[in-house]
Amino acid sequence: MAPKVQRTASPFLQIAEHYRMKIKDGALPQDSKLPSIASISREWGVATATAAKAIKQLQEEGYVRSSSQGTFVDLGRKLTSGSDRLQMLRATGSGFRKGETVEILSAGLVAAPGHVAEALKLSEGDQVVQRRRVYRDDDGVVAVSTSYLAGELAEAAPELLEAGPLPKMTFGLIEERTGRRAVRRRDVVAMFPVPQDIAEVLEAEAGSLALTMTNLYWDDNGEPTEYARDFLGAGRELSAEYPMD
User: What pairs with residue 104 in β-bridges?
Assistant: First the structure.
């Protein structure tokens, strides 16, 4: 059954959102071909100019590329922080942008700090898995990311305690071993002082303020699975674009 345009938002934005969600959910993986503008026009009952505007919107957001052969999913240009890597993983099979590398700095069990324990519904001092990594690209450090997971997850996935890359990142590994699929997240953007233990890696002065994004993920039972905080490198930015009703 063909989708119907709702009049709460511009038709081109509704069409763009339809394909954006398919890309984010992995229904349209990397390099998949989207329907032609003529096909979208017929399916949605809109003018070809409206369909073309929707495709242009997706191009501007970095979800697709267009050529003489058609329009294809292409997430290579999207700026990713920790919060976007799950969508990248599901859509492309990789949580990294083109040209981006990751180095695992440390992995192991630590006592949960207060803010971590509260986020993961644990008691302060409980054992949690801590994994710290640094992402780099051609311009230097993208972010230093520290993630925390309940210590019990190391029983199902002992690889979490190894200072090496995971085959499916933490999201995919947890889902594979426990069936707990991350379905919701909360992002908090704030300025925080750079901790002493990551200042050198971040190439920043300890105590100086840096832009951060903190993420908390929940599974389909509403239970928290992972808490992470990224300290972004100098000159990096966080941006998002949303349709407005």
Answer: 133
